[in-house]
Amino acid sequence: MDALQEKIKEVVAHHGRERHNLLPVLQEVVEQERYLSDYAMTLIAEEMGISAADVYGTATFYSFMDTVPRGKYLIRVCKTITCYMKGKNQILMALEEALKIKLGETTPDKKFTLMETNCLGWCHKAPAMLINDDVHTELTVEKVHSIIKEYKERP
Amino acid sequence: MGKNILKRIDLIFKEEPDSKNVLKKTLSKSNDELINELIASGLKGRGGAGFPTGLKWKLTAESKSTEKYVICNADEGEPGTFKDREILTQVPYKVLTGMAVCGRIIGARKGFIYLRGEYKYLLKELNAEIKKFHAICDELGLKFRVEVFMGFGAYICGEESALFESMEGKRGEPRNKPPYPSDFGYLGKPTVINNVETLAHTFTIFQHGADKFRELGVKDSHGSKLFSISGDTPTPGIYELELGMTVEDFVNDFGDGDTKAVQVGGASGFCVPRKKFRETRIGYQGKLTGISLPTGGSMMLFNSSRSMYNLLSNYLEFFTEESCGQCTPCRVGTQQLIEGIRAVKRGEKPASYLDKLLALTETMKATAKCGLGQSVANSFQSIVENFREEMIY
């Protein structure tokens, strides 16, 4: 049994094999592995007694369920109306400059991935972005550079 | 601007004695008394749909089943809405109390908070609050447990039946209705599903009585409501205001002096142009004069520097991405609308093509399976009809 197999067995045992535990299982695997590989989905399907297609169909419905490898720090910039009005594009450009990647890409050291997302619920403090679960609001170009500098220094 | 015409209310975030007090109070009353109190308060769902809360609880209480559930809908995804997050941050005990009282009335021992993935940073503190709350329930002999279920980035899961599907480990695709959640909800069991703010209001009603709530607002739209205010305003934020206000008063209070339009109810709501500020009120359909707009509380202001074409295009992009893809009117309709307005703007289609698109939104309103597809017509029609020139030139 390989490491992933073992991990998935453990996660499924912890949440339970019933179908209504599928999302918590998928979420935990994404959190630990930083994405959901085809192999992981097949293993989850086996372990929970459902078809791999069903697991894939469910997983890909949710925008946070990444099925390609992501960086350690996943940046999601809000692109919905208020953030758009308050300069989301400049924020995105600042991030591209600070990370030397384009929207949708991951840095070569696999540390950062840059994405856009729909309304984060911080319209009164726009523009806003998430870095993993952490919220950053009232962004300015300077603020973006200092945030990224700080994350770059993290392990 | 900044005239303070509208009375600021302080009920939702007001510090109250802890849950124990209210729970004790409700335990001394019968289920019928509590339901009648809720019905008398006139409280309607604060997520935006406005279904009478007391009636919802009553119907679910009358449903026969040994398993029932209470679900707090914290999948706050409507663009321009952020009040539920603040309630869960500042006064989570009010929400938990409302859930437990509901559980007792309908006969449910289990409650869930469906928290959107974007708010995951709240999870740790929320779980700590839940733990404290369980201890109070145990002390009072209430067999009720609450668990948080995390969403994962899907706007449609705020639609109640899509939310059940998601909790059941499936794609968040809305179900046909009927059956309604009061008969067939989570795992097919009778379920009360309420918005975060609705549950917080029940705390106020059980603590202070129905009259305290009912004295606020206007006929058919009783009580106060949290408004998430953003866009071109010097004072963005969360405000508790009475229902029934005119958009004109609202703009005088919160506008920047150059307000061109107000979007009421988020991307799925209505865009009110300046010429209709006076005749439009915020509240549920009823005896209000003029136009009456219901809302989950999203109020976005736009000044004359904003392009209404860009606004509509941003909404449509949102809907195209968030449509679950299950039914054709919504999946294809949203795509056709965005392609359509782009084609008109580029001059590839004549201006009259906008009328075809308007007819398409009517079709979507009539035939889409759920509120997402049906409500695209709201913003599309109110923007295209009021700002037609901006769509073309």
CATH homologous superfamily (4th level) name of the largest domain in chain A = Glutaredoxin
Helix content of chain B: 40-55%
Classify the secondary structure makeup of chain B into a structural class: alpha/beta
User: What is the CATH architecture assignment of the largest domain in chain A?
Assistant: 3-Layer(aba) Sandwich
List the helices and strands and how they pair.
The complex is a heterodimer of chains A (155) and B (393).
Chain A: H1 3-15, H2 22-33, H3 38-48, H4 52-59, E1 73-78, H5 81-85, H6 88-99, E2 112-117, E3 129-131, E4 134-136, H7 141-153
Parallel strand pairs in A: 1-2
Antiparallel strand pairs in A: 1-3, 3-4
Chain B: H1 19-27, H2 31-41, H3 53-62, E1 69-74, H4 83-90, H5 92-106, E2 110-115, H6 123-139, E3 145-150, H7 160-167, E4 191-195, H8 196-208, H9 210-214, E5 217-218, E6 221-222, E7 224-231, E8 237-242, H10 247-254, E9 259-264, E10 270-273, E11 280-282, E12 291-293, E13 298-303, H11 308-322, H12 328-345, H13 353-367, H14 371-386, H15 388-392
Parallel strand pairs in B: 1-2, 1-4, 2-3, 7-13, 11-12
Antiparallel strand pairs in B: 5-6, 7-8, 9-10, 9-13
Helix pairs in contact in B: 1-5, 2-3, 5-6, 5-8, 11-12, 11-14, 12-13, 12-14, 13-14
Give a structural overview.
The complex is a heterodimer of chains A (155) and B (393). By secondary structure, chain A is of the alpha+beta class. Chain A folds into two domains: 57 residues, Arc Repressor Mutant, subunit A (Orthogonal Bundle), CATH 1.10.10; 81 residues, Glutaredoxin (3-Layer(aba) Sandwich). Chain A is built from seven helices and four strands; from the N terminus they run ααααβααβββα. In chain A, β3 and β4 form a beta hairpin. The radius of gyration of chain A is 18 Å and the shape is elongated. The model of chain A has no long low-confidence stretch (mean pLDDT 97). Chain B has 393 residues and is an alpha/beta fold. Chain B is 44% helix and 16% strand. In chain B, the strands form four sheets. Chain B has a five-stranded mixed β-sheet. In chain B, strands 3-2-1-4 form a four-stranded parallel β-sheet, sandwiched between helices. In chain B, strands 5-6 form a two-stranded antiparallel sheet. In chain B, α11 packs antiparallel against α12 and α13 runs antiparallel to α14. The mean pLDDT of chain B is 94. The chains are: A alpha+beta (155), B alpha/beta (393). Chains A and B meet through α2 and α5 of A and β7 and α11 of B.
